[in-house]
C-alpha cells in the first residue's frame, strides 16, 4: 500500500526519522514537533492505512501496517531510520521492529505497552457514528452533535480533523470509520510472546497515563532487552502534545546516543 506522508526537513546527512500517529489521528498530529527534529535529518510523517490521506482497506491489523511501513521505507529508499510511534503507531512500530529488525536503527514507543488492551473507544466511535456526514451543513453542526457524547472540546477538535469537505460539496470522513469501528478490537492486540527486538529502544510514558503501568515493565524488558523507560512529568496519553519540548528533547537524546 502506498502511504501518504509529509516531510519535514530536507535530505540531510542525519539518519532519517519516521513517525507514526495513533488511532483516529494523522500525520498532522506530529507536524510541529517534527520540525524540531528536522534540523539535522529528514523526518517523515506517515498516515497509516485507513487514516489521513492514505488508502482505505478491509485489512486492519498490525501485521498489515508493519508491512505497509516496510513498503514505505523501500519506496523512499530509507536506510535503517529511527521509527517513532505513538499509541497505535507505537504498536505498529513494535510489530515492525520485531518482524523487520534489520530495517531500522532504533525504536521510540510513546505511551503504549506490548500487552493486550481491551476495547475502550466505544464512546468516541459512537459519537463519530452519530454524525450524519451526508447531510450536515457545517463543522459547527458536527461539533454540536459530537458534544452530546464527548464533552471535552480538545478531544472533539482532534476527532473532527478527520472531517473533510468534498469537492462537490458536503462532508465526508477522511478516515475509514466503518472498518475502524468493525475491527477496533484488533487495535488492542498484544505482541506475540516470542517477539523480540534487540536494538536500542526508548519507551516514553505519560506520568498521568495508565497505558504503561509498572506491571508492564518486565514484559517490555523481556521483548526489548535494550529498552529504557522514561516518564514525562505532568502529561497524560497525549504527552507529545502536552509537553512537546520535553518529548522532543528525550527523542533527540536517544537518537544521538543510538546513532
UniProtKB/TrEMBL annotation:
Record InterPro entries: AB_hydrolase_1, AB_hydrolase_fold
Signal peptide positions on this chain: none
Keywords for this protein: Hydrolase
Limits of the AB hydrolase-1 domain: 16-112
GO molecular function annotation: hydrolase activity
PANTHER family: PROTEIN ABHD11
Protein name: Pimeloyl-ACP methyl ester carboxylesterase
Organism the protein comes from: Catalinimonas alkaloidigena
Amino acid at each position: 500500500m502506498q502511504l501518504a506522508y509529509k516531510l519535514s526537513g530536507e535530505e540531510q546527512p542525519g539518519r532519517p526519522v519516521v513517525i507514526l500517529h495513533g488511532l483516529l489521528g494523522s500525520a498532522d498530529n506530529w507536524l510541529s514537533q517534527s520540525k524540531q527534529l528536522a534540523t539535522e535529518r529528514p523526518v517523515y510523517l506517515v498516515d497509516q492505512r485507513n487514516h489521513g490521506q492514505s488508502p482505505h482497506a478491509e485489512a486492519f491489523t498490525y501485521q498489515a501496517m508493519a508491512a505497509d511501513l516496510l513498503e514505505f521505507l523501500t519506496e523512499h529508499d530509507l536506510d535503517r531510520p529511527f521509527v517513532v510511534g505513538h499509541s497505535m503507531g507505537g504498536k505498529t512500530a513494535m510489530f515492525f521492529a520485531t518482524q523487520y529488525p534489520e530495517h531500522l536503527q532504533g525504536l521510540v514507543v510513546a505511551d503504549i505497552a506490548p500487552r493486550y488492551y481491551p476495547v475502550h473507544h466505544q464512546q468516541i466511535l459512537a459519537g463519530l457514528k452519530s454524525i450524519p456526514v451526508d447531510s450536515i451543513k457545517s463543522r459547527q453542526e458536527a461539533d454540536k452533535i459530537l458534544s452530546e457524547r464527548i464533552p471535552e472540546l480538545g478531544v472533539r477538535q482532534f476527532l473532527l480533523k478527520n472531517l473533510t469537505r468534498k469537492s462537490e460539496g458536503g462532508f465526508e470522513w477522511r478516515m475509514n470509520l466503518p472498518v475502524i469501528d468493525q475491527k477496533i478490537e484488533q487495535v488492542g492486540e498484544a505482541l506475540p510472546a516470542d517477539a523480540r527486538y534487540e536494538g536500542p529502544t526508548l519507551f516514553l510514558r505519560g506520568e498521568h497515563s495508565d497505558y504503561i503501568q509498572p506491571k508492564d515493565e518486565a514484559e517490555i524488558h523481556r521483548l526489548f532487552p535494550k529498552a529504557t523507560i522514561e516518564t514525562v512529568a505532568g502529561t497524560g496519553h497525549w504527552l507529545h502534545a502536552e509537553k512537546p519540548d520535553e518529548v522532543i528533547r528525550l527523542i533527540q537524546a536517544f537518537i544521538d546516543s543510538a546513532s
